[in-house]
Design brief:
Distance between the termini: 33 Å
Number of strands: 2
Order of helices and strands: HHHHHHHHEEH
CATH class: Mainly Alpha
Structural class: mainly alpha
Number of domains: 1
Number of helices: 9
CATH architecture: Orthogonal Bundle
Shape: globular
Strand order of the largest sheet: 1-2
Helix content: 55-70%
Length: 203
């Protein structure tokens, strides 16, 4: 048990797990804005799972992308990959599993989140490589932060089971003239989170 816990801590240090809390206000605020009629504990749970998973996948990819550079930099040479505490294969497995959890959590929220989850992953994974050719890589980081609340302004179709979006329950003109027949808005959260170690530095 001690060895297992020690291994968990190694992974946690690699992705700076304690920093995951920095991303949550973006997703939870967008949930509140999009819900309008309230948000359920189940939705909060899957939003948190999606954001932690997205950040974990992004941080793992960041470590893989920067492995060689980290090994040559005295400031980062003590990280888990350069020190050999984790292998590249282990980190790849971690990244893939984290990405899969993100997709699962997105699907549990609603079909649009499920459809957008690959885009969310592309954005947070892409950040790690923009540092190689531009000093403006934080613009992509800003995009990763900004995509979360976008779901709050999406149109409100009715939502059936995962993968099924049904048309509004009443015609648009009826919804505009009779509030009682208007379709309830749905919560749409694009599960994107913060990939780097902190908000102020590119690693």
């Amino acid at each position: 048990m001690r060895r297992l816990w020690a291994r968990v801590l190694v992974y946690g240090r690699m992705i700076r797990f304690s920093h995951s809390v920095f991303a949550l206000p973006f997703g939870l605020t967008s949930a509140v804005l999009g819900a309008r009629e309230g948000i359920t504990p189940r939705q909060v749970l899957w939003i948190v799972v999606a954001m932690v998973a997205a950040r974990s996948a992004a941080m793992g990819m960041n470590r893989l992308a920067d492995h060689a550079q980290d090994a040559r930099n005295p400031r980062t040479a003590g990280r888990e990959l350069p020190r050999g505490l984790l292998t590249r294969r282990e980190v790849w497995v971690f990244v893939i599993l984290s990405a899969a959890v993100l997709v699962l959590a997105a699907g549990m929220l609603n079909p649009l989140c499920l459809a957008l989850s690959p885009l969310a992953l592309a954005i947070v994974f892409g950040y790690s490589y923009t540092k190689r050719f531009t000093a403006a890589s934080h613009l992509l980081l800003g995009l990763a932060l900004a995509v979360g609340p976008v779901g709050a302004v999406a149109p409100p179709p009715s939502v059936g089971p995962v993968g099924v979006v049904s048309p509004p329950s009443s015609p648009p003109h009826a919804a505009a003239t009779k509030a009682s027949t208007a379709t309830k808005p749905m919560i749409l959260i694009s599960p994107v989170t913060i990939p780097p170690n902190n908000l102020g530095r590119v690693d």
